[in-house]
């Protein structure tokens, strides 16, 4: 997460038009430069792969090189950054409220058969893992965090957080910790071999070392750039992006006999131990332990009201993201310490929200300057209003406000991937909500803007944002809306461009129902096949192409049956069977009519 003082543009009162919300990446020609690789220590000609521009005040492009020996990527020259100076109070609060680092760390810890003992968390950030370990009585825990973000656990949670780098700590005993954890740190250090050596010294006999680092995979010009590529590359902050071979080699040099790597959500989680361990994650334990921890902390009377509000907010987000609104609603009154008074009131009384355009930018800038998490919170209030309360009009205003605030935050305060995701999610959901509130024209216009946003920016791997998944969802939403409204002419006009869009950005075989039945098929997250194919067959059925519709509904029914318990598959099973029967009846009826017509002509 990086702070930005730059201004990429102005956010007007209702400025939801196309914007550029990404940092540039330039592919280089691979000219080799003799350099020493931080990952493996080899000195060799290392081709320059990318130039990546950061949002640091200097806006200097950073050169990313590839080591031909270990296939790791690294920056040269090595960035020089003082992390303790990068965290403002608002940025630290944002990381605490929005960050998923605790869930990620719990996923890494969930593989342990014995989840107890002495824990050391190196680079612990706000110290939630340290607090979790002791609050759930798993053992004594210690954190190391040289930046100011560790103040939360040290001052507010009263945990043992040491404010220095591991290499500077001469008092921390060696061979004393059953679990040594370090998530997303090793990629920041200039000497990863020395850092891993220091970590290894702290592991007790029979203990385990666990650390994580981004796994960006192979970088190539034809790689479809994910939205968070620049964030994964993190120019100005990361030093090395490790290959699997480099990580294994580093640990082999430290005489770890058992090493396992898991690719979890685009990150390597690495386990090193003296005894064999299982590396199968227990996500049920993660969910239950995480919720238990948040509930306990949110009710802890020994904590200040503001700190309890922080845990209430995290609990609200967790429950809300799971769609369990009756459980989330009672937490809303406890969040007032973390919200502008007006927003706190709207959270309890959604009908009172004013028209988004009536709020001046100066007011919104004051809000977001203090509360970086507001865009995400307002987005959740929009989802709550739409899906739980049935207040579509209010949901549109929440989505529009989340869109404006996220745009302001990116331009003025904090340029990170999550905020950009909220911008596009809010824009997309505002368009869908407008369709459902009978404001079809405005909704279609907004969705068309989202769908066409890819054409307004650079093409190829440099296009980081806007994102393909939101453009896809926008075009699919327009097509589905027109079909479900029975607007067959408009739906027919929309289908051909939609198919062209999908075929140009995805495997064209996905336009055939049979392709989705293949067991090895990886479904794009944004493109569930069920509703797309159902709407396609409905269009065929209602434009007289009954034989094609009958065959398509039969194929889709088979696919749905194969993919149960997917909710869309369950929902559409009976509809596919019913509409296939109707299509066959129409085919049979048209044949009977033609036979009777031919008989009458012959009789004449």
Concise synopsis of the structure shown:
This protein is α/β, with parallel strands linked by helices. The protein has helices spanning 89-98, 101-109, 128-135, 151-156, 192-201, 229-233, 244-252, 283-298, 305-321, 325-328, 341-348, 361-370, 374-388, 392-412, 417-436, 440-452, 468-484, 488-505, 529-541, 546-563, 567-603; strands spanning 25-27, 32-36, 43-53, 61-66, 73-75, 119-122, 141-144, 161-162, 177-183, 203-214, 240-241, 258-264, 267-273. It is built from 21 helices and 13 strands.
Mean pLDDT: 87
CATH architecture classification of the domain at 84-280:
3-Layer(aba) Sandwich
Q: How many helical elements?
A: 21
Uncertain segments are 1-23, 458-464, 593-604
Return the CATH class of the domain at 84-280: Alpha Beta
Instruction: Please report the total strand number as a whole number.
Output: 13
Order of strands across the biggest sheet? 8-7-6-9-10-13-12
Distance between the termini: 83 Å
General shape: globular
- Briefly note the CATH topology name of the domain at 84-280: Rossmann fold
CATH H-level superfamily title of the domain at 84-280: Vaccinia Virus protein VP39
């Amino acid at each position: 997460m990086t702070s930005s003082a730059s201004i990429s543009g102005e956010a007007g009162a209702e400025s939801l038009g196309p914007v550029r919300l990404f940092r540039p990446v330039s592919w280089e020609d691979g000219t080799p430069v003799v350099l020493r690789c931080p990952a493996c220590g080899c000195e060799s000609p290392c081709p320059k792969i990318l130039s990546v521009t950061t949002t640091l005040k200097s806006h200097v492009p950073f050169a990313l090189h590839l080591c031909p020996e270990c296939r790791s990527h690294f920056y040269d020259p090595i960035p020089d950054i003082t992390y303790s100076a990068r965290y403002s109070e608002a940025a630290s609060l944002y990381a605490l409220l929005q960050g998923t680092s605790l869930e990620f760390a719990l996923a890494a810890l969930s593989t342990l058969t014995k989840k107890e003992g002495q824990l050391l968390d190196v680079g612990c950030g706000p110290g939630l893992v340290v607090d979790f370990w002791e609050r759930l009585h798993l053992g004594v825990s210690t954190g190391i965090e040289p930046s100011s973000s560790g103040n939360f656990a040290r001052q507010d949670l009263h945990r043992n957080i040491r404010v220095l780098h591991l290499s500077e700590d001469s008092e921390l005993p060696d061979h004393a910790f059953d679990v040594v954890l370090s998530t997303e740190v090793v990629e920041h250090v200039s000497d990863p071999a020395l850092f891993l050596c220091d970590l290894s010294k702290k592991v007790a006999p029979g203990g385990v070392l666990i650390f994580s680092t981004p796994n960006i995979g192979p970088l190539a010009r034809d790689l479809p750039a994910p939205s968070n590529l620049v964030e994964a590359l993190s120019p100005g902050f990361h030093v090395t992006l490790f290959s699997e071979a480099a990580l294994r080699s580093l640990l082999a040099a430290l005489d770890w006999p058992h090493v396992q790597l898991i690719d979890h959500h685009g990150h390597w989680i690495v386990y090193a131990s003296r005894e064999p361990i299982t590396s199968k994650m227990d996500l049920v334990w993660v969910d239950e332990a995480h919720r238990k921890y948040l509930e306990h902390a949110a009710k802890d009377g020994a904590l200040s009201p503001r700190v309890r509000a922080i845990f209430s907010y995290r609990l609200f987000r967790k429950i809300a993201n799971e769609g369990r609104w009756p459980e989330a609603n009672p937490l809303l009154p406890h969040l007032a310490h973390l919200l502008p008074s007006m927003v706190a009131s709207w959270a309890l009384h959604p009908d009172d929200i004013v028209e988004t355009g009536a709020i001046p930018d100066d007011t919104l800038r004051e809000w977001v300057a203090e509360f970086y998490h507001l865009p995400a919170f307002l987005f959740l209030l929009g989802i709550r209003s739409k899906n739980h309360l049935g207040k579509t009009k209010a949901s549109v205003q929440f989505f529009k406000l989340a869109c404006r605030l996220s745009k302001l935050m990116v331009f003025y305060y904090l340029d990170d991937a999550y905020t950009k995701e909220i911008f596009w999610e809010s824009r997309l959901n505002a368009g869908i909500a407008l369709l459902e509130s009978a404001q079809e024209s405005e909704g279609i216009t907004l969705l068309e803007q989202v769908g066409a946003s890819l054409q307004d920016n650079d093409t190829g791997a440099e296009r980081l944002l806007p994102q393909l998944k939101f453009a896809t969802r926008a075009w699919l939403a327009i097509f589905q809306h027109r079909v479900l409204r029975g607007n067959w002419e408009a739906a027919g006009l929309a289908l051909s461009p939609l198919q062209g869009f999908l075929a140009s950005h995805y495997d064209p075989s996905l336009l055939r129902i049979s392709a989705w039945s293949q067991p090895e098929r990886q479904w794009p997250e944004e493109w569930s096949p069920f509703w797309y194919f159902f709407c396609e067959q409905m269009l065929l059925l209602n434009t007289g192409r009954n034989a094609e519709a009958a065959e398509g509904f039969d194929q889709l029914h088979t696919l749905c049956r194969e993919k149960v318990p997917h909710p869309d598959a369950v929902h559409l099973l009976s509809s596919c069977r019913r509409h296939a029967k109707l299509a066959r009846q129409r085919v049979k009826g048209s044949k009977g009519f033609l036979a009777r017509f031919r008989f009458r002509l012959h009789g004449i």
